[in-house]
Request: fold
Amino acid sequence: MARMRDGAVARLEAHPADPDPSPIGYDMVDVARSTARVTQPMVRKAFLDHGPRYADNRRGLEPFVPVSWSEATGLVAETLQSVKARFGNEGIYGGAYGWSSAGRFHHSQGQLHRFLNLYGGYVDHVDSYSWAALGVIMPHVLGDMMRVHPELPTWAEIAKNTQLFVAFGGVPLRNTQVNPGGLLRHSVRDDMKAARDAGVEFVCISPARDDIAAELGAQWISIRPHTDTAFMLALAHVMLTEDRYDRDFLTRCCTGFETLRDYVLGVSDGVPKTPAWAANICDCKPDVIVALARRMTERRTLVSLLWAIQRADHGEQPCWMAAALASLAGSLGKVGGGVGYGYGSVHGYGTAASRFKATPFPQGSNAVKTFFPVGRLADVLLNPRTPMQYNGQTLTTPDIRLIYWVGGNPFHHHQDINKLIRAWQRPEAVIVHEPFWTATARHADIVLPATTPLERDDIAFGDGSLIASHRVLDPVGQARSDYAIFADIAAGLGFRDAFTEGRSEAEWLTHIYESTRSRAKDSGLDLPDYAGFRRAGVIELPQAPPPPTMFGAFRADPAAHPLGTESGKVQLASARIASFGYDDCPGHPAWLEPIEWLGSPRAATYPIHLLSSQPKTRLHSQYDNGAVSQASKVQGREPVAMNPDDAAARGLDDGDVVRVFNDRGAFLAGVRVNDGLRRGVAHVSTGAWYDPLVPGEPGTLDVHGNPNMVAPDRGTSQLAQGPSAQSALVQIEKFEGPLPPIRAFIPPASVPR
Ligand code: PGD
Reply:
């Protein structure tokens, strides 16, 4: 909430209804006014001089030239026309992955997609950086996740019905600060405490103790990163050999039990997946596995898998095996039991849903059907018109000639930044709308300054509340909303009226709200009119009734309530997946050694497994220049958490600056010694803005702390082709010599025309 003084915003405060406000948002005003803003349209000099067909692109290196809005929008229209004339709409990538901001009207991707759909379409992507492996494999195993997710037990139901909550990857509260579409009440901390008070026991299986709140008194089982599948297979081994599995459920509701059983017992491959076998892989005690397997079959158990676990080599496997475990343990389909994906990954999983959804900003439909899995962006740019496996299909990668990016920061979120930089030089044109001089903006040809949420009115709808977001700042410099920018470009291309439908921004907001209001009325709910809503600021909508027991109807009568899988049942093995013939994703859940992990030969050279998570102090890369994020830095660098033994072995003290590196790249970070991380594991949050020591030089050091300098850019498997950023081995050494300055927040060089 904005506190105003003399007509100007004095500061932002938490909403009084919020029990556990996130500190991230307090910086929005300062950041909006910071020097890192793009204040006027800018064009890379060589692009302005030579146009899109110039072959020698050196994005990220050359200076920009300030231009007027009319010249900039004219240039965008011309560039689109030039690419379309030669390559058709198939030459335009308009996926623009990213979080952007919470408002539903000024949602950047929605604006871009509407604009490009009206222009004839664009190459799109599928899946996400968040849960690609999960999203592709689970329809084969449990059916469509969009049907499974809404049935996830809420924390209130967990408190009532669950006895044991087994969390692979924990339930880190840092992620529950955010939710797509905005959030009024941060309730997860209190909800979990209430569950603990009601007697729920928590187990956190993770290399990091802090992945679950200390006050929950959870049992911490420390395992090597990305050995979860081996751990789960050994739990299954105990259940099978001690006759602790639910024969009735397996017979009635699952297919493939025999295949999985034979694999777990070693009948099919000669390797029984015993606790001793797994303990050797996971580096934990076999007794711990035996004891947990017994508890899981004696108590109503909910198996939870954090999305980060599947952002790794063979990330499909722990997803599949978690469902298999819940089936074996007999908890799937029972109240308070089963399997949940996403608790602790964002706020909205496990919190009550609202009774209906707000009307979205209409995007139209895309005439181009070409797509690629989003995590493969760099490969697609580097290798156009090449076959790529994906979920049983052979795709042909598109030949992207123009990238249009609005509301995301691939130089923050994509793995292997040095490879991305090479790939990013390939297209003829890169157009970006950005409020800030992020690395993505710096690597563009045309940069159009966008407003931040404080500079425009909007409606947020995230966790069951309608929130009026008010303009409290004047747009900084010449910044304009994405809507206004697209309306002008559409005018140049002859479809302004189709894009705007004759509505101003205020009229669109009224239209979206009034249509939401009339849908609310249909479900018996009277909302105030638009003016009343904006005065009220927040409308809390009634919650939907608690979801039915997840898979409850299916368990009771699988023939009457089949799942959307190939057999209609839970697939403990899948003939369809087996038929794809993928060696990196066989027809049943399996322990496949990660390409990069502490057990691989590569660990002899790079002995530290680097985990990277969503940051506690900012929204992905947003607000990195704000006070909250800056206060967490060590000598201006992103902190790297290290186990005390690993630090001591390298002669490192808390507060030292180190070089974190492997053969993909290197970055500087500041040491924070932390005994809550197991030995051989380090952790860096994502989101420190990429800050090259020598801009444009291949492989140059990032002086600020972006973990994607060293993260691998390869698909989780041929099935999902999801990002596997977590599978990164590195070495860490003390950084000697004078510390390079941080320049990420200083605008790039600009030259007059
Ligand atoms: P943001 O920093 O939110 O990150 O990556 P994502 O790209 O979503 O980027 C949003 C950008 O949009 C910012 O630059 C912001 O300034 C801009 N923006 C905000 N509002 C507006 C607007 O109204 N208009 C315009 N034009 N721009 C706007 C997040 C992604 O990172 C995600 S979701 C995940 S889950 C991944 N996680 C990991 C990970 O665990 N580990 C690694 N190593 N890497 C990851 N990357 C992924």
